[in-house]
Specification:
Layout (H helix, E strand, L loop, with lengths): L28 E5 L6 H16 L4 E5 L4 H9 L5 E5 H9 L11 E13 L2 E3 H7 L4 H7 L4 E4 L5 H12 L4 H6 L3 E4 L2 H9 L5 E3 L1 E2 L4 H9 L2 E3 L4 H11 L2 E5 L11 E13 L4 H13 L1 H5 L23 H9 L4
Parallel strand pairs: 1-2, 1-3, 6-7, 6-8
Antiparallel strand pairs: 3-12, 4-9, 4-12, 5-8, 5-10, 11-12
Helix pairs in contact: 1-11, 6-10, 8-9, 11-13
Length: 330
């Protein structure tokens, strides 16, 4: 039976987890694959570590930087790490085995949703919108302005979602270039700098509502939020296995009303071969000590136990299901 890897230190402690009660844990060192250092996922790693130590003082969760969710699927599937963070859309792509994978990744299982509010927030500068009469994607398609669009870099799921939205409106990168425009690719920090330096007219990215980078842009120039129709939201959600959400109108001065949009969900995934007892133990610690995760960032205050089970991209691990049923969440 495959269990999560143990790190044996200077003394022998206890017996193997398969023989011990799930209420007792040796000095286990779990490895969690995230993304870049210093970002939200690194904070989530710290929160998971705190949640585990709240129930098991000798346990540690070590955050390991990686290329993000797509890379983490391979890390978890090959058991190079104990668990990893992925978006729902990335997990669905991995299960299907479509690009960037060469074959389906069938041994990933969900353990816990960390958030489901990575909001799609497409914006265009007011100067550009006024100059070309752009207030919607339909305007963009019909008027064909030389828009300089900036989206997240390849290999990040926000990149895929931006292209899916464009495709749903019948717009391609080649179309934009044929209009005399351009498409640039950058990480979230780079996007802000490009926009502030007036090197872009429009941005499409997924971030938390009120994210500092969005505030930074809005403080630098007037911008307009581009609406995404219900039909397009439904089409993209169906294609990518992602959710939807509503940004409150009071979130930004540029909104006059609530703004319905697409959303990405991030979750902890584990190898299907990991023992039920081990996953139950970790999941129960996360449920019981959710305040440790809520405390890592103000945006994470929205996390609650009910949200932890809200995904359908891949099956939950049986050990996690046991913990959720015990807590009355499934």
């Amino acid at each position: 039976m495959l269990g999560i890897r143990k790190v044996i230190k200077t003394v022998v402690v206890g017996t193997c987890i398969g023989l011990a009660s799930v209420n007792v844990v040796a000095k286990d060192n779990y490895i969690l694959a995230g993304a870049s250092p210093g970002g939200l996922w690194s904070l989530l790693g710290a929160g998971v570590d705190k949640a585990m130590r709240a129930s098991y003082p000798n346990a540690t969760v070590t955050y390991q930087t990686s290329g993000g969710g797509f890379a983490n699927a391979v890390q978890v599937a090959s058991q190079k790490v104990d668990f990893g963070i992925m978006h729902d859309a990335e997990a669905k792509i991995a299960a299907k085995g479509t690009d960037p994978y060469k074959a389906p990744v069938t041994n990933l299982r969900a353990m816990a949703v960390m958030y489901n509010f990575g909001a799609f927030q497409p914006m265009v500068t007011k100067d550009f919108a006024d100059k070309y009469g752009i207030s919607s994607y339909e305007d963009l398609k019909s008027k064909k302005p030389p828009v300089r669009l900036i989206i997240n870099k390849r290999g990040i799921i926000a990149h895929n979602q931006a292209l899916e939205v464009l495709a749903a409106y019948g717009i391609t990168v080649s179309d934009i270039e044929s209009w005399g425009g351009s498409v640039q690719y950058s990480g979230s920090k780079g996007i802000v700098e490009l926009m502030k330096n007036r090197q872009g007219d429009m941005v499409m990215n997924n971030l938390f509502v009120g994210h500092s980078s969005i505030r930074d842009m809005l403080n630098s120039m007037p911008m307009v939020m581009m609406p995404v129709s219900q039909a397009v939201r439904d089409r993209v959600s169906s294609a990518m296995g992602t959710g939807q959400m509503v940004i409150p109108g009071k979130a930004y001065d540029i909104l006059s009303d609530d703004y319905p949009t697409l959303a990405l969900t991030a979750m902890l995934v584990v190898n299907s071969g990991t023992s039920d007892d081990e996953v139950y133990k970790v999941t129960k610690a996360l449920i019981n000590n959710i305040s440790e995760i809520q405390g890592v960032h103000k945006a994470m205050r929205a996390l609650n136990p009910e949200m932890m089970v809200k995904q359908n991209a891949i099956p939950f691990h049986p050990g996690a299901v046991k913990a959720y049923k015990e807590a009355g969440l499934m």
